[in-house]
Each structure stands twice: as structure tokens, then as C-alpha cells.
Amino acid sequence: MFTIQFDAAGIYKVGTRTQQFHVSFEEMMSFTGGIIGLLEYGLAWKVMKVSIGRTRHRLWHHPGSSIDTQPAIWIDNSGPVLYELRHGLEYLRICPEELETSRFGKAIKLYWDGGMTGLKTSWVVRMVIEAFFVGLWRNLLRRLKKRSF
Length: 149
What we know:
Structural class: alpha+beta
Low-confidence stretches: none
Radius of gyration: 16 Å
Shape: globular
Helix content: 40-55%
Mean pLDDT: 83
Strand order of the largest sheet: 1-2-3
Number of strands: 6
Order of helices and strands: EEEHHHEEEHHH
Number of domains: 1
Strand content: 15-25%
Keywords: Membrane, Transmembrane, Transmembrane helix
Largest sheet: 3 strands, antiparallel
Number of helices: 6
Distance between the termini: 27 Å
């Protein structure tokens, strides 16, 4: 499953269980797929807090500036069997089926398949809401597991 595997001090291991690269929180917050991945991982409060702060900053200090930036994780090359995901100089080779096992991976793949023009707003809203509730559910299960031990 392509997702955030582990986090420590704001650095996240992103990828599959066998292949991963390190991505910072700020880099994850810089693109739609990253926000969906963070919500799916269970960091809803932190994502909302940073998003509100960024929106407030843009409204007062940089009105009219574009929110879209180059994604921190992107597909550089795709073939019939494998996609090559890049983050700086690091890369992972991953099959499309494995990439589509999470909302995070789907967002990255759809961005590439759509010609890197952006995702449909309705799809993004649906994925953000789903990821939010999946993250809440995972947090609840983690807390229940900790209490049972």
C-alpha cells in the first residue's frame, strides 16, 4: 500500500513497505496529494491549523497570488508496468495498482494522468472528506489499541 509509513519529528517516510523516501511536513502540505495523505494518516488537526494560517497569510499579505506550486512528489516517467515517483533526487518504481491502493497515491496518479493540469474540485473535496474520516477512524483505533495494552 502506498501511503505514509512512519513519521518522526515532522519527517515522513512515504511509499510502500519495501521502498520509501523521506518527505517533510511542509513539502507534504505544498500539494493536494500530500494534504490528502496527511489527512489519511490521521493528522487532521495539524493540517487544519496550518491550512487556516496559510489562508489567512495569503489573504492579508499576498492577495491574488497563486496557491498552486510544483508538487513535492511527482511522477517523472510512466510505462505500461511501472511509474517512477520522484522526490528531489530520490525515486521509487511502483506499479499503478499499488499506487491506487490509497487516496494519497490516487491523487498523485490522477495528477499525472490528467496532464499535470490539476485535479477536479469535486474529486478533491470528496477525497479530502474521505481521508479526514479515515484518519479519524485510524486515530481512534490507535488509541483503543494503546488502552487495551
